[in-house]
Amino acid sequence: MSYLSTVNFFEDRAFVDKWLYRIRTGELDLSWMNASTEKVKPRPENPRRGLIYRDINLGSYGVEAIPEKVRSNRSYAPRGAELPPGLPDAQAWVSRKSELWAHNTDGYYEEAVTRQWNASTDIPWDHLQGVELPEATGKALAQLMTFLTEVEMIATDTPAMWLPRLNSDFVEVKAFIAAQTMDEARHTEVFRKRALTTGYGLMQASPMNEMALKHLRDADSFSEMSVALHLVGEGNVLTLFRFSEYLSPTDVDKKIFRLVMQDEARHVGYGMQHFKWVLEHYPQKREILHSHLDEAENISFAAGAATELTEAFIILAGGGLKSENIAQGVRITTAFQLKQMQEHFERLEKCGMPERKSVDRSKLFAMFEMGKAAAAEAGIKF
Amino acid sequence: MPNPPIKPGADAPRLYQRRVFRQSKWEKRERLYLLVHDRGKYLMSIKFPSLDYFTALKREMALEQERFKRLGFIDTTFGIGVSQNGSWRNFVLVFEVFELKEVQEVSELNLGQLDFAIVGENNVWREMIENIKRHGQADTAHDLNTLTHFGEALQVRYAEPEGHDKLYRFMESIQEFFDLSSKLEVSF
Asked: On the CB side of A189, how many CA atoms lie within 13 Å of its CA?
């Protein structure tokens, strides 16, 4: 057992006597009724939305009441509750607001709650009846789905493992991260189901991608995890989902990618807002985040170019294995890879890190410049 | 294709503030809609591009509240630009909670005040709308992500990447909003 109570209550005479005394006499203590907490009367600002987190952002319960360094609450006491002596130390790793906060976190959470969907019933699986994809396209789609299932499994694990590490005063962030975990679990489910419904089953796991994914999981701080997961990883995956939707051979695949891209774009939104927040409120972190980005960009570049992923894209984009298909597939896949990099640097610039758009600062940017030149020479627009 | 009348800066005139949406205009639009729509049947076709077209979609969306509630909150303001013979018709759509709250025709799209804008030639929009009418929803070659993906058919313009990402955060709602065209009789 990793945790033992500091008291053995079964052998604590005073505790047992008090319990028996109350049963015998009905005498109540009622001291909790005098909790010195703020009394408020929240109401929905817009009844169409219902009572949302923003409506209860009041006084000592509000987000403005959270100090930069949360020293008073190290337990699971809800923010704004009275903290009596004896609350255990839950040993949160993150008790500094700037290390996890983001503008509109509550809004992203509320949006996540209303935009949940069901991988079993919201996808028109019955439309796949009688659909036979050509072998090369079918196998390429199954390989893409295998890769995405791998991606989403680690995207489920990573936010989930940070949940108990976040101080309970940051309830809105915890709620958002919990919702993200659910989103990613659903993505794992839908991609696994689609892989099997291709008729080719799951294809090959990707060592290069798993190495990249492991980097997301093993970050030293929440901010580093967030920049690698929400900004780099999910930013790239958002572009990938849009690209995959574009290439989708059936309306079932289109629907899947439209629904997953909604969730992914929401995660990217939180990631951007957090990145902005940490750079503004904890400027000492800038160099650490630069350093983490150096590695995140290194492995995302390698993962994006992994054979088992790139070749599946080329076949899907070109529509087959004939030389003209491959030529077309290479053009579209190159355009996609450059778009991914372009949008990555756009996001970093918007968040307050424009200096990465320099070949001296970012090796990925140097690759982007090289790739653009090569694409221009080959007449590829993106 | 020539550039659409789009202002990229945040300093451009504030065209889309609420004060421009006068109630009388809305009442007029609603009355017009009732003239063309009777118990689920359209008595006359609606021209595209026009404010009437988007007002009709607004009405259809309101009639399908349960479906759009199921899709979730949609909070975004975006522009639509339609080019024909070198001139542009531009519209601003304001979505809030579960519905299209306001729609307005404007002389130019101010990207500083929009999350994003989708712009393109009238013939591309026409093909999309006719495809939706034929199939009840856009087929795999005519959904918005496909048409905008490489900017060859329709283009997505934006000033801020966060605004751009909203197209994808609300993609299913936006697609199903346009799929409501299947319920309209549209002329071009």
From this structure: 14
Residue B95, pLDDT above cutoff 60: yes
Q: How far is B72 from chain A (nearest CA, A)?
A: 4
Q: Do B168 and A265 touch (CB under 8 A)?
A: yes
Of the candidates B75, B140, B168, which has its C-beta nearest A238's C-beta?
B168
ipTM given for this complex:
0.90
* pLDDT digits 0-9 by tens, A325-334: 999 999 999 9
Helix (H, G, I), strand (E, B) or coil at A93: coil
Chain B partners within 8 Å of A261 (Cβ): 145, 168, 171
Interface check A176 vs B, CB under 8 A: no
Residue B11's pLDDT band, with cuts at 50, 70 and 90, is very low
Which residues are CB-contacts of A125 (< 8 A; sequence separation ≥ 6)? A193, A197, A252
Which residues of chain B form CATH 3.30.1050.10? 46-187
Residue with tokens 């640097």: A345
Among A262, A264, A381, the residue to mutate for chain B (most B Cβ within 10 A):
A262
**Cα distance between residue A186 and residue A54, in whole Å:** 27
Fold held by B46-187: Nonspecific Lipid-transfer Protein; Chain A (3.30.1050)
Is pLDDT of B18 > 80? no
Q: At what angle do helices A135-162 and A307-318 cross, to 10 degrees?
A: 130
Domain A101-377 fold is Ribonucleotide Reductase, subunit A (1.10.620)
Q: pLDDT tens, A287-316?
A: 999 999 999 999 888 877 788 889 999 999
A254 and B CB contact within 8 Å: yes
Question: Given this model, what pLDDT does residue A4 score?
Answer: 81
A25: pLDDT strictly greater than 70: yes
